[in-house]
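Changelog entry: the ABC transporter permease record was regenerated in this release. Current contents:
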Amino acid sequence: MTEYLIRRLLQSVLVIFLITVVTFLLIHAAPGGPTQVMLAPGLSPEAFEQQKRNLGLDQPVPIQYIRWVGDLLQGDFGYTFKNHLPVADLLWPRVGNTMILMGAAWLLTLIIALPWGIYNSTKQYGLSDQTSSFLSYIGFAMPTFWFGILLQQWFSLGLDWLPLSDMHTRGKENSIADLLMHLVLPITVLSLGSLAAYIKYARASMLEVLEMDYIRTARAKGVKERKVVFRHALRNALIPIITILGLDLPSLVAGAVLTESVFNWPGMGRFFVDMAIAREYSVLMAITIVTSVVVVAGNLLADILYAIVDPRVKLGGKGSTAA
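Regenerated structure tokens:
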């Protein structure tokens, strides 16, 4: 297990390193590059060269990259080009806001999808199964931004039940109840596609396990159906679901970008869109790195949970079988 974890950690570090290289090169290859944004317009050639030296832009790209990574390792994301504000001070509060939104959507998805999918596997083609299939088709087909606008029209502008946008009502920034009210519509939108997928995954995974020989043997011995499902079948059925959880994290992050833009949620997604329009390259690089670390950490966690849930997987040591 220890050898497996070390190997996975090293792979994750390598992936993040490659992401930093690609991100840095893409930003420098963008039209105009950071030079045109960082340097004040209307400078004389002499002042232009002096400012490049002050900002370190006269150095070769590899040297600039090494300096940038060195600053990253110290938690320094640099400064915005136009206002010269610390990127970290602007980014970290938005990271927390995005984690609140994504965490709530993820938790809601698991709470609803897993029990529903498991139940449908024991009641194939029943009303619940057909209803979830219908909702799944809607979830797969409906665009995120359109569904968000639709909910705003119905529940905010039409019925006036829920807030239209933002994270807090002005003057209620410390109210948990107000935050929960603002969360309802965004997490509904963000959960829809994942909910549809996880119900299908949970149902299909449980059906596959319930048809195995050891399940039939347990039933033949008179083991109660509830015990067969939740004690014998569920543990093995969770294995592919855990894998999907790790792989689906990038989709959840991408969905947060649209959802935050529609609902004016002050998170990383909306911030990324605003900074892309403003061509604040240092901020874009910081958001990309933070998002990449979250995604890689999610996949690493999925690998660890996979090893814990599946007792048949032997990790590390001689004669072992790695997942």
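The radius of gyration is 24 Å.
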